[in-house]
Amino acid sequence: MSRFAEPQHPLFQAINRSLDCDRRLWPQDVRLSRAHARMLARIGVLSDDELATLLKGLDQVEAELAAGNFPFRADDEDIHMAIERRLTELVGPVGAKIHTARSRNDQVATDVAMFVRERAEAAIDLLSTLMAVLLERAEEHLDWALPSYTHLQRAQPVYLSHHLLAHFWRFDRDRRRFRHVVDLADELPLGSGAAAGVTFANDRRFLASELGFSRIAENSLDAVSSRDCVLDYLAAAAICTTHLSQLGAEVVLWSSAEFGFCESADRFASGSSLMPQKKNPDAAELLRAKAPRASGALAALLGVLHGLPLTYNKDLQEDKRHLFDAVDTLELALRVAAEQLRALRFNRKRMESAARDEFMAATDIADMLVRAGVPFREAHRRVGALVREAVEQGVTLSQLDDATLRSRLAELDPQAVRSALALEAQLESKISAGGTALARVREQVANARTRLAADA
Fold this sequence. Notes:
Layout: H1 10-16, H2 19-22, H3 26-42, H4 48-67, H5 79-91, H6 104-140, E1 145-150, E2 153-159, H7 160-184, E3 187-188, H8 204-211, E4 215-216, H9 220-225, H10 228-254, E5 262-263, H11 282-305, H12 319-343, E6 345-346, H13 348-355, H14 362-371, H15 376-393, H16 402-408, H17 414-420, H18 423-428, H19 438-454
Parallel strand pairs: 3-4
Antiparallel strand pairs: 1-2, 5-6
Protein name: Argininosuccinate lyase
Subcellular location: Cytoplasm
InterPro entries: Arg_succ_lyase_C, Argininosuccinate_lyase, Fumarase/histidase_N, Fumarate_lyase_CS, Fumarate_lyase_fam, Fumarate_lyase_N, L-Aspartase-like
C-alpha cells in the first residue's frame, strides 16, 4: 500500500517521465551514490559489508550504463529511480538503503551542479583552443591591412591581426565567465533532503570532499530549489554564442564576392542543389544561427523559475532540456569555429584595396587641424565639407588640387595632408594603447600570449 489508491494515468506518466532527457546524468548520479553510500557507512547507517555490496552493485550499474545494455523499464520515471531500482535488483534488500537520508530534490540538484561544473570546464578548454587559433592567425597576418567598419560602412583602416585579436579578447571574457560559473556551482546541495534537512547527522563536508565541492550549501531550502548554476551557465553560453555568431557573420560577409576578403576551406562549405557554381559558407552561417538557441534556453528557464515559491516544484524538471541543448550547441559551435578559422584563407589584395579608401583618413586630417589650434568640432566640419567636395567631383582626397586643400585646411600644408592620406600613415598613426599601430598590436600579441599561457 502507498499514499495513492489508484495507478497513475498514462497521460500523467507521459508528462511526468523525464528519463529520455535526464538519463544523461547517469555518470554524476552513480558517482553521487557511491559518495552517499560511503557517508552512510561513515555515520553508522551501513555496515562495512553493506557498503561493499552497494559499491559492487554500483560498479555493475555503471558498467551496464556505459556499455549501453542497462535494462531500462517502462515505469522508470527518471534516471535516479532507474539506477536505484536496478541496484536493488542486483544486490537485494540492501539496495533499498541507498536512499536513506537523501531526497531526489537534493540528489538532482547535486547531479546538475556536477554536470554544470564539468561542462563549464569543458567550455573553458574549448575557448582556450579557439583563442589559440585566433592568436596564431593574428601573428600570421600581423601587417595585413583592411578597413574597420561602423554601421557596415568603412570607418578607419586596421591590421587584420588587430581585428582577429578583438575576437580573442571577447572569448577571453567568455572564459572568465565560465570560470565564474564553476565557482558559483561549487556548493554542495546533497544532504539537504527534500526541504528542511534530514534527521541523520549527515557528514556533508565529507560528501563535498568526495564529490569535489569546496563548500556546502548553507541553507537546505535554497539548496534544493536553486537552479542558479544552470542560469549562470546559460547566461555565459548565451553571451559566448552571441560572440560566435558575430564571428560567423563576418566570415559570411567577408567571403561574399562583394567583399572577397576571405574564403572558407572546402571542407567547411557546401554547394547548391541547383547552381553548380555555388560555394556557401554554411558553417559560418550556422555559427550565426546557433546563438538564439542558447539565448532562448536562458529565457525559457528564467520563465520556468519566475515566481516559483520555495522550495522544490516539478517545474524544475524542465531545467535539464534547456541546459543540455545549450551545452551541445555551444560545444559544437566552439569546435567548428576553431577548425573553420584555422583553415580560413584571407585575400590580402582585396583587403588592402578596400583599406586604401582615402576617405577613411578624414579623422586623421581633422586631428592635424586640432594640432594646429583648430577646435575639434570646427575641424570636423571643415574636413566633412572637404570630403563632400571630393565626392561631388568624383575624386579622392589626394586628387584635390592645392588650392582646394588650402581653402578648407588653411593651417595645413597640402603635401603634409597628402602624406597623411597614405594607408601606412593612417595605420601607424593610431598609437594609443589598444590601437592598431603595429607597435601596439605587437604588444597586444605579447599580452595575449601571456594570458593564454597563464591560463593553460
